[in-house]
Structure prediction request, 148 residues.
Amino acid sequence: MESDCRIGSCLRPRFLALHMLFWGMISLRVFGAALLSDEKIPVTHAVTTPCWRTEEFVVAAECAQCNAFQSTVAACSPTGFVERINCAKSNKDEYKSCRSALMDERLFWKFEGAMVGLTILFALVVVSRQRSLDRLASEKVRRQIESI
Prediction:
């Protein structure tokens, strides 16, 4: 099994020092950012679980795009669509983020368009490359014929 080191270059002191310096700076950057962050999470902050995660619920309003009022609700931010639900036990009305069929269809057609565009682009690249290779081959044959 071969090593990644070539002719002992991995054991040179300069290489080792640079390697340690590089990884030290990476570590300092990652862990230092975590230690020096201004965001302090209060210990007494209680995170409440939405009722729809623990209880049965009924969908009161189908999935729809967020309006100006709903845009302040936290459930609106992940997808831009929410549905209003009613939890059975606690009888609470809450908003739940959802995926819209309209949004999924739009994303599908964007993906399809991108794939068709890439197909056309690479087909043109292949055709131009083939033409240049054909030109080089015919030029080589012409030179061989002239040399006879």
